[in-house]
Amino acid sequence: MQADWAKPSPASFVNGIRLASHVTVTASITIGHDSTGKPVEFDIEELLATRLLVQGNSGSGKSHLLRRLLEESAKMVQQVVIDPEGDFTSLAEPFGHVVIDGAAYSPPEIEGLARRIREHRASVVLALEGLEVEQQIRCAAQFINALFDAPREHWYPALVVVDEAQMFAPSVAGEIAEDTRRMTLSAMTNLMCRGRKRGLAGIVATQRLAKLAKNVAAEASNFLMGRTFLDIDMVRAADLLGMERRQAERIRELERGNFLALGPAITRLPVAVKIGPVKSGLKARAEGLMALPETAPADMEALLTGGLAEEVAQAAPPPPAPPRPRVEEVEQSIATAEERQVEAPAEPVDHSEVTERIDAIIVGLAAEEGAAFQSASAQYQTFLTRCRRERIIGPMPDIGSFRRRFAEAANGLGELDEETRARIIALSAQVEDDLLGPFFVIAKTAHAGETTLDEEALARAYGTSSPGRIRRLLGHLERQGLVVVREEFGGGRTVMVPGLEGIAAE
């Protein structure tokens, strides 16, 4: 850790007026070393103004990186850590952080604690491991909002570290309630977009860039990208680092504890950095294999079964069942429901109209940018949510039927005449659901007799940008007998679909 302090000059007086002395402070820390052994420094003052995004798969060293950053800057700036897994509570003893157990306080108390933290400039760790996932999200959102809404006189500079940020700023609706999702997205957006003027510098760490809301990730100007294997995450990481997409493979090859760094607080050009050691945390971690205990089978059985009945008998009793509703309440509820049915008699459902409205929702969803890169379950959940919002009453398509109709809409089969569309759909009967999109692109192109195959459309339909995956896709479809691929000496490739006129060449 380095800190250069310019000594203040003695105060002087002019015409009886005291002139304030000027202090110049430059604070930087060493986060690690590059491949030549040169230290890679982090300008903490610049970080306060430009924010940080850390990304890496599980086991890439994200928590180690955050711990290094927090330890090295602990004496320079106030720190607030949102910790869903209890990884950073060990900062308390060596660095004086106050650990707040989120499960021990009510929502108003959490907000009151946040206001006091800003007032007294305390470095804290909000430990959320004792809560269920949705409770963690709501607790963190209320805590961040209270930090954000602190009075202006308490807008002191502070680093706000959010680990597992994809939980608190999800890119798509998941299993949490919609009001919880709106609350947490609002809190995280305020932190990253408007927090700087209030002294709050957001540091978000995530395993999956694709699962992190784009408006949250886009506000960071500094990046530390660790190892990741999924194509969509590598492409987003390469875009943020200003790398060409063919260079994205470099991210997959990073070793544990190594990150690609870029940003005004670190370096103007991407540099590979190996993160330095830390002082807190677990001192002895089980890395790799460990020898099993040398215990005889009979002794091990005794350890497992001895006194088991007594231990179970002493376990805490289950919580009491909620009281049953009174008979009057049940009768009132039934009467209210009957009144609603009488006031709004059910009308016969027009199934053709329901089908048209469902098709319109699927077409609209398929036309949205990035929809093809979402998982099928996420697409289907969004579809069901929009159907409920439109108050559509009638039989809903199951996920298999939805995926086929989504693939048809996303790849323009509705633009074809009925006979051609029916032929292509009949040929696709043996195609797996996740390959329908690319098969429709190939079949549509082949039927049109075009001489080129749109690689971007094929990649978009398959949800990838990797040429290697496209080649493997064509090979798989050919082995299934669905297409015929002809290699040419010049390196070109023609793709034909048996049963359709026309040839598509790649």
From TrEMBL:
- Whose protein is this, by species? Altererythrobacter xiamenensis
Name recorded for this polypeptide = AAA+ ATPase domain-containing protein
Entry's InterPro entries? AAA+_ATPase, ATPase_Atu1862_pred, HerA-like, HerA_central, P-loop_NTPase
Q: From which lineage does this chain's organism come?
A: Bacteria, Pseudomonadati, Pseudomonadota, Alphaproteobacteria, Sphingomonadales
Q: Where is the AAA+ ATPase domain?
A: 48-238
